[in-house]
Write a structure and sequence with these properties.
Layout lengths: L1 H17 L10 E2 L6 E6 L3 E5 L4 E6 L2 E2 L2 E2 L6 E6 L2 E7 L4 E6 L2 E2 L2 E2 L7 E5 L4 E7 L4 E6 L2 E2 L2 E2 L5 E5 L4 E7 L4 E6 L2
Parallel strand pairs: 1-6, 2-7, 3-8, 4-9, 5-10, 6-11, 7-12, 8-13, 9-14, 10-15, 11-16, 12-17, 13-18, 14-19
Length: 181
């Protein structure tokens, strides 16, 4: 009897896992007023890398996917003496890095605003697409994709003694770097 019960429980557990892990849902954030996001990195690096046939997405003090805020939303990324690196390395790889940016279906409305700031004192911002069909997108204090604000929207990026580098290597590769845009 114990053997039959154990067998039945094993079959039920196996059936439950047969469909694989449940998918992670992206987007769908609703705030309804304000939303302050700040990231301070002193002498440290922020790195996002995708290898061949893979995708890497990184959001640092950013709104990405289906966000609705309904008024305000300040975002700040302070990268003092560090680097922000975004790399799609390998064929058909995709890497997207958002630093204090709105990316995707983001609305803000109702009184609106949306200030975005990225400070890179002695910092470097690099974006690389290296490989056939590789695509790298780096948004620095930017609005990219379907963004609605309806009143104000200041973006500010500063790299005092810093560097911005954007490079596409490889057949049909694409590197997009948006700075305060």
């Amino acid at each position: 009897m114990k053997a039959i019960a154990f067998f039945a429980l094993t079959a039920i557990a196996s059936a439950a896992f047969a469909g694989g892990p449940s998918p992670v849902s992206s987007g769908g954030i609703t705030i309804s007023g304000t939303s302050v996001q700040k990231t301070y990195n002193n002498g440290s690096n922020v790195t996002n890398t995708a290898g061949a046939n893979n995708k890497a997405l990184q959001n640092v003090s950013s709104n990405a996917a289906d966000v609705t805020i309904a008024g305000t939303s300040n975002q700040t990324t302070d990268l003092n003496g560090g680097m922000a690196t975004n790399e799609a390395k390998g064929d058909y790889s995709v890497a997207r890095q958002n630093l204090a940016s709105n990316n995707g279906t983001v609305k803000i409305n109702t009184g609106a605003k949306s200030d975005q700031y990225v400070y890179g004192n002695h910092g470097a911002f690099t974006n690389l697409a290296d490989g056939a069909g590789a695509k790298a997108t780096q948004n620095i204090a930017s609005n990219y994709g379907a963004v609605t604000v309806s009143g104000t929207s200041n973006q500010y990026a500063s790299a005092v003694w810093g560097t911005y580098a954007n490079l596409a290597k490889g057949s049909n590769s694409i590197a997009v770097q948006n700075v305060s845009s």
